[in-house]
Amino acid sequence: MTSLDTPDRASRSPFRPKRLLIALAQFCVFQAAWFACVLGAAHDQAMWGVAAAAGVVLVNLVLSDRRAEVLMLTALAVLIGLAWDTWMLRAGWVRYAAPGSLPQWAPVWILALWALFATLLRGPLSWLHGRPLVAAALGAVGGPMSYLAAVRLGAGQFSDTPLAMAVLAVGWAVMTPMLTEAARLLGSRRSAQRRSSAG
Q1: HSE, side-chain direction, 13 A CA sphere, residue 44
Q2: Please, what is the angle between helix 46-63 and helix 17-42, to 10°?
Q3: How many Å apart are CA 152 and CA 71, to the nearest integer?
Q4: What does the longest C-alpha to C-alpha distance in the chain come to?
Q5: How many Cβ atoms sit within 10 Å of the Cβ of residue 32?
Q6: 145-197 per-position pLDDT tens digit
Q7: What is the pTM of this model?
Q8: Using CA of residue 29, residue 34, residue 39, residue 45, what is the dihedral sign?
Q9: Is the dihedral of CA 54, 58, 59, 60 positive or negative?
Q10: Between helices 132-152 and 161-198, what is the axis angle to 10°?
């Protein structure tokens, strides 16, 4: 079984052909599940997208040789997403489609997207480990653009688009390096344990 994890800095290079192909495949799968979640929510069929995201997360877990770390990272991403998107909702910056039975909380399909995002942290985004400023810059751009795309596809609505995008940029500039560094630290701890055992 081939692991999707990336154990060291050298193998995190996005320019190694095998790693690049794996990263591209992971990103394509992520993007397909992202569209399933967003379009499902937009058409009030959110659970289909949630099921697709859950499938991707499960496959990522099964293929990993570091399952405990994957579970911890996924749980962390979902908790951050729950706090962030619930705040965005209650502060009035955004209104989500398919809110579910708890309309004052981030909907399940949004949390599924956070779990889905976690699958990238040890793969396509692993080159950001140890580069928090780059991760912050990418998060400040990529995070808001992802929300804007979802809104334009009918999965939500901004109360004030320019201000909401600015708030999202600040939030994602903080959350992205938090998650990439969490992934790095979990991997470093595993490597240290292996060295200790070998010694």
Answers
A1: 1
A2: 160
A3: 32
A4: 58
A5: 11
A6: 999 999 999 999 999 999 999 999 999 999 999 999 999 999 886 655 555 55
A7: 0.87
A8: positive
A9: positive
A10: 130
Which amino acid is it at 90?
A: R
Tokens of 8: 């060291």
For 133, phi and psi rounded to 5 degrees?
A: -70, -40
14 neighbors 127 (Cβ within 8 angstroms) = yes
Per the CB < 8 A criterion, the answer to whether 175 and 139 are in contact is yes
The first and second tokens of residue 114, run together, are 């956070």
> How does pLDDT run across 86-113, given as a tens digit for each residue?
999 999 999 999 999 999 999 999 999 9
3-state secondary structure the chain: CCCCCCCCCHHHCCCCHHHHHHHHHHHHHHHHHHHHHHHHHHCCCHHHHHHHHHHHHHHHHHHCCCHHHHHHHHHHHHHHHHHHHHHHHHCCCEEECCCCCCCCCCCHHHHHHHHHHHCCCCCCCHHHCCCHHHHHHHHHHHHHHHHHHHHHCCCEEECCHHHHHHHHHHHHHHHHHHHHHHHHHHHHHHHHHHHHHHC
Looking up tokens 């399940």 gives 108
